[in-house]
Amino acid sequence: MGLLDSFEKGLERAVNGAFAKTFRSGIQPVEIASALRSELDKQAAVVSRDRILAPNTFLVRLSAADDEKMRALGPTLVEELDGLVKKHARTQGYSFAGPVSITIERDASLSTGTLRVESQTASVGNVSWRAVVDIDGKRHPLVAARTVIGRGSDADITIPDAGTSRKHVEILWDGERAMVRDLGSTNGTQLQGRKVSEAPLPPDATVTIGRTNIVFRIVAEASTPPRPPVPDATRAFDTRRGDSR
């Protein structure tokens, strides 16, 4: 059970019993998680009808007392916060312009029970959108308008699946829209569990050939890395009052 299991179950429990004494007062892990999720939702920018860009670099400022308690947990807390941010982004359909980074820092100006979250992302003008497919944990960029996938060495993406044809399926991408097309394979092609010969391919859809799942995604890439978050005194959360200031 993770530190943030309570958050994922609707905040029914503050923290599990092992940390009950540690977090009797002051900031609790679930409150950091809630603030990060709120920051994601507030700063997410709609780029187009199907694309929403969210910040990927976060700085969490805590009082000296709260920072000391969080540091006692080691890297576990940051790891779980990282997973929660990514899960919330997937649920909401947000895209990141780079790897997610979460830093917890002590701020002597904050009082116990108060935290501040600052975030940063690339500006929309510095972001390009790339089509990729995820296969067995590996990501393959679609660098051409037509990408052939199959078990043959002459396919653009070769997969070691005996249940697929040498050139089994192709993905067509014009920079805005994608299609999937079966290439006369022996065992056919499925899109979201339904057999297709040719069909539009929406983001995050799964194409299945043989025993292999191919997940199509459109991801954001920053042309220049985002700068570290700049302090913003307007976004501070006081958990003792349950509001922001």
From TrEMBL:
User: What's one Pfam family the UniProt record gives for this protein?
Assistant: FHA
Q: In which residue ranges is the amino acid composition biased (Basic and acidic residues)? A: 235-245
Q: Which lineage do the record's taxonomy fields give for this organism?
A: Bacteria, Bacillati, Actinomycetota, Actinomycetes, Micrococcales
Q: Which SMART domains match?
A: FHA
Q: Which SUPFAM superfamilies does the record match to this protein?
A: SMAD/FHA domain
Which ranges carry the FHA domain? 147-196
Q: Where is this region: Disordered?
A: 222-245
Name-wise, this protein is DUF2662 domain-containing protein
CDD domains reported in the protein's UniProt record? FHA (cd00060)
> What InterPro entries does the record point to?
Cell_Proc_Reg/RNA_Proc (IPR050923), FHA_dom (IPR000253), FhaA_N (IPR022128), FhaA_N_sf (IPR042287), SMAD_FHA_dom_sf (IPR008984)
UniProt keyword annotations, A-Z: Phosphoprotein
